[in-house]
Amino acid sequence: MAGRGKLLAVLGDEDTVTGFLLGGVGELDKHRKPNFLVVEKETSITEIEETFRPYDATKDSILRRAKGMFTAEDLR
C-alpha cells in the first residue's frame, strides 16, 4: 500500500459536511474545480458514480502536504 493514497468520503447532513469542508477536506484547484461533490435531489446517480471513479492521489494537494509532514517511522 506504500505510495498509494486513501480516498475519504464524507456522507452526512449539510452542517456536518460543511464542517469537514471548512476543516480542509475539500478544495478547489486552480481552475476552480472542486475535489468534492455536494449531492442534492437533482444529482444523478451517474454523476455520483463518476465523481468517485477519477480520483488521483498524486493530484491531491492536501494528501501531498500531509505526506510531507510524516516519515515512515512516524507511522509505525
TrEMBL record:
Any single Gene Ontology cellular-component annotation = membrane
What Pfam families does the entry give?
ATP-synt_F (PF01990)
Does this UniProt record's set of keywords contain Glycoprotein?
Answer: no
InterPro entries documented for this protein: ATPase_V1-cplx_f_g_su, ATPase_V1_fsu_sf
An example of a GO molecular function for this protein is:
proton-transporting ATPase activity, rotational mechanism
The cross-references to PANTHER family, in alphabetical order and at most eight, read: V-TYPE PROTON ATPASE SUBUNIT F, VACUOLAR ATP SYNTHASE SUBUNIT F
Full protein name: V-type proton ATPase subunit F
What is the species listed in this Swiss-Prot or TrEMBL entry? Answer: Alligator sinensis
Q: What is the phylogenetic placement of the source species in the record?
A: Eukaryota, Metazoa, Chordata, Craniata, Vertebrata
This protein's encoding gene: ATP6V1F
